[in-house]
Specification:
This protein is of the alpha/beta class. Helix 3 crosses helix 5. The radius of gyration is 21 Å and the shape is elongated.
């Protein structure tokens, strides 16, 4: 059965299956839901909402017309060995997901700028000392990755009067942001980023984009916030830069191995804030509306929004 006749959606997401089904029933009752692995006749399924699917999930979905990613990132999908070629993948681009990521990054920028990480240590030591504060216009925040999330973060930081610089693969104009692009401008960009926010996707080009060499480009005392993907940072090199005093601290929401192993030294490092990949969590009410609208629009126009460029990896 074609999606144009009736959408039959396979759900393989997270621990909130019941909430997803309930919300779809309220927002788009015309969409029939089937939860993996109870798929019924797999040839009837024409669309899927997925997160970290097992390879065998795709084995008999011969009539699959579209895949929706539950998250902004799609690397878990693209790495799946069973992923069928030629099936369009739609990224999750909806306001609440974007807002959550902006909130996470904004919180950590403010936390480092206002030295809250140091006051937290002083509280533990019962030590009372005023520390010199710098005004926001004197602090340079660098955003590495200026897609929809990066641009949304830049808009909020701009209202707080931070100096903003950004790095991306190609040149573009963004009001209030000085843009750097291409491999030959990485050193100059990082050399000015006192607080660096990583929002890049996981690709072959971005793997360990922060490594021993590039971490050394950052100003002494700089801070790193990674809300993009875990493999953007060479973790041993990051630990070395923290231990040497070159970096002032790091806030990490994503890691090369998740869950973060108990023996990983990042857990107990005094300069590191660890959060369990919660920078932004997809919110079923707005996400379901986004998917329902995309299906309805596709029936009218034949087009899907926010398609993943599989050859580029995002």
């Amino acid at each position: 059965m074609s999606i144009l006749e009736k959408p039959i959606l396979l759900l393989k997401t997270d621990s909130r299956d019941t909430e997803w089904v309930k919300t779809f029933g309220e927002i788009a009752p015309e969409i029939e839901m089937r939860i993996w692995p109870d798929v019924g006749d797999p040839t009837e399924i024409n669309c899927a909402l997925l997160w970290a699917p097992p390879a065998e999930l795709f084995a008999s979905l011969e009539n699959l017309e579209v895949i929706f990613s539950i998250g902004a990132g799609v690397d878990s999908l693209l790495r799946c060995p069973g992923l069928p070629t030629g099936v369009p993948i739609v990224r999750m681009v909806e306001p609440q997901l974007t807002a959550g990521m902006v909130e996470y990054c904004l919180f950590n920028v403010l936390r480092f700028h206002r030295l809250i990480h140091l006051f937290e240590r002083q509280q533990q030591a019962k030590h009372w000392e005023e520390l010199t504060q710098r005004p926001a216009p004197d602090v340079t925040v660098g955003i590495m990755g200026l897609g929809k999330l990066g641009e949304a973060l830049a808009r909020q930081l701009k209202t707080l009067n931070y100096r903003l610089i950004g790095y991306r693969r190609s040149a573009v104009e963004i009001e209030g942001v000085e843009i750097f692009h291409g491999a030959d401008q990485v050193k100059t960009f990082l050399g000015r980023a006192e607080i660096l926010v990583l929002l890049m996707p996981a690709t072959q080009e971005t793997r360990h984009i922060l490594n021993e060499e590039t971490l050394a480009y950052l100003p002494t005392g700089a801070f790193v916030i990674n809300a993009g993907r875990g493999d953007l940072i060479d973790e041993p090199a990051l630990l070395s830069a923290l231990d040497s005093g070159h970096l002032g601290g790091a806030a990490l929401d994503v890691f090369e191995q998740e869950p973060l192993p108990e023996e990983n030294p990042l857990w107990n490092h005094p300069k590191v804030l660890v959060t369990p990949h919660i920078g932004s969590i997809t919110f079923p009410p707005t996400a379901c509306r986004y998917i329902a609208d995309a299906i309805r629009d596709h029936k009218a126009t034949g087009q899907w929004p926010n398609l993943v460029k599989t050859e580029a990896g995002y």
